[in-house]
Amino acid sequence: TMGANSSSLAELSSNEYLIRLCGKQPISSNDPYWNQLLSYAFVPPVTSTDAKLLEEQTANLLTTFTVNNVSSGNLNSLLRVLVTMVSNLQQFVLEPLADGRQSDIFLMQLYNALFISRCIIKHLVEQLSDELLLTQIEHCPDKQLHQRRLLNQQRQSQGDASAATSKRDLEEDDNSGDESDESNSSSEADATMVEELIEALVHLLVVLPVRESTFPVVYESVCSLLVLLSVQMYRTEPAEKLTFYQILYTGRCSMHAFRLMEVLLKYYVQRPPAPDRMLVNAGGSAGLYNSLASGLWSMVTLGYGSNPAAEQRAQLRTGLLADQSCLLSLVLANHCAGARRFRNPYREALLSCAHANDPGNVEHLSSAASNLISFRVDFNLLLKAICDRLPRDEALLMLYLLLHSAGGLQFRGYVGRQGGDDSQLAGLLLPILRTLHSEAQKSSHQVYMALIVLLMLTECQQFCTRVHEIQLQPASVSGWFTERHLGLVSLGSLLAIVLCRTVQLNVGRTRDKYLHTNCLAALANMSTYFAGLHPYACQKLLGLFAHLAKKQKKLVDEMRSRPANMAELEADRASVEDLMRCILEIVNNALTHRLAENPHLVYTQLHQRELYQPFSTHPAFQDILQNLGTVMHHFTSALGESSSEHQNQLSEHRVMRVIEERSRSFRRDRLKKFPEPKYKYVEEESPDEFFIPYIWALVYRSSNLYFNPSKLLLLQSQQQSESDDKEGQSQEATA
């Protein structure tokens, strides 16, 4: 009943319907039993805690099912029922929806079939190898159908070239709908049950609109695909060698890749609300649970746990489908990105989407997507959806993919050129900057993604210009930036401050050159467009150089006193000097291109000009320091003249006034020309090694599904790697 408590779950093992499902006796797919089993209404678990409790209470039943299914084939029968229901979707759901009629009973039974199948397959994925898992799914109690499939497999193994060619053509041709009914029937006969299952799940997401009545089915379809793809967490093989991925990326499903990614992104943006009945674990009328199996399934899903808090319930209401769709889209887009055997159509779809309100813009489209727009989405709403979820890892990853240079660059261009109003661009950057500012409390993956996103954005000239035009009120940063009161500060200046701080905090405790390089590369890209740089940003920039100069001197002294460690110390010294050189290039570029717009940078240079003296003849810095010396000489001469006029009394205000006046008369042709820094993010050669464990860690943590951590080989290896990194950093910091 609705009020059953957790102790009632013990009665599951004696329930006649589950005993028959888990037994050795085959149940045909047309047996009335399925109609009885699927005729109930219940509230599904929507949190990982509840999902864990459910799995614990059904573990023995699922173990029994696994043993007996190899002879009964009841999983195959259940999936046959499910696939048949999906094939009848047009008649029993889509047409009634179009006419304003209800189809609640059919949708309830369809959802139940999805949910039960997902629970069983998830258990099998965790417990069995790929070969045994497929055997469990494919074993068919219908001997006639089983023999027909065996005959088809024999024909294929004997090299039926014409059939193979026909199937390949069907998989690659987007216009396969023109094939004859006979050809389609033959293709369906050749399909395995796992192929039919995955195709049914994709079909549900592609064609079924989200309504209050259809929401559970759509949500469960997303969860079911995530569970099938979660096989990667339990395997050491790459995804391209796993059957579920091969079917999704190369089979008939791949023809729907553009539409599927469009639907998932739409749910992410629109956040369709979950119906109340999915979020309430108490109350209701016994009349809703009038089927023979209602007692069983109400206990399974309602007889444990406590009601979620109101705040959690509100988050689940708008985030349940949206966040799950985001995770599925990230999984689809990031696996098999570098596969040699086949392409990733889901990644291509996401990278080549276009702005819905800019139909005339077809420039810079992805060559990987054959110069076609995959689908259109309102970039303004998409950007808002991402901003609302930052700095969550999922939002950072979605932003990374949309900004990726392998795509059409349309989203990156949109953010740089217009990107909503100034408040929206601030809403995009402030959570990322806050993440970097508090990076000690964040995961290394989140920090890296934040830096990569910033580097990608700074590759856009319009973005670099816009951030210096947006002024932030103190209240915008007072909640987390506490090291100094900044007053009015531009978004660009705050970006420079946080990047300098990130380098300075990490340069002494980690040798991760990518972190330092990405920070300084983003600053270098911005330096051509520095305007009105805040005094504290100028101090942080020069302060970083001073910090590195001290480290360089210490290394040089150690090289003299510890010649046995010469090779290691020499490498460290060269790395530090590379960073110092980069800072000088940033300052030089800003003064070369934007001298008049940055009086505080000139003032800071004059105030700390002795900082450069020890390196004036250093071969790594000499050429740039000559430029900076020319600039400083121009202003020191002007200040000397002004000092004579004012009896050697120059206030800070007067110095700034002289700098502003003499900036207009400075001739840029007096400076040696250096190439304008233009750094671009280049993805690693094997991005899967970083992204795949990262994404599945997010699924494990955020999907509201439960995965047994003791069995997750992929995440165990990641945790070991992170532990080794932290140990190395700790040892280095101590040294």
From TrEMBL:
Chain residue ranges for the region called Disordered: 154-189
Family: Belongs to the dymeclin family.
Cellular component terms (Gene Ontology): Golgi apparatus
Taxonomic source organism: Macrostomum lignano
Top-rank taxon: Eukaryota
Entry protein name: Dymeclin
GO biological process entries: Golgi organization
Record keyword Thylakoid present: no
Acidic residues bias spans: 171-182
Keywords from the UniProt entry: Lipoprotein, Myristate
Pfam families: Dymeclin
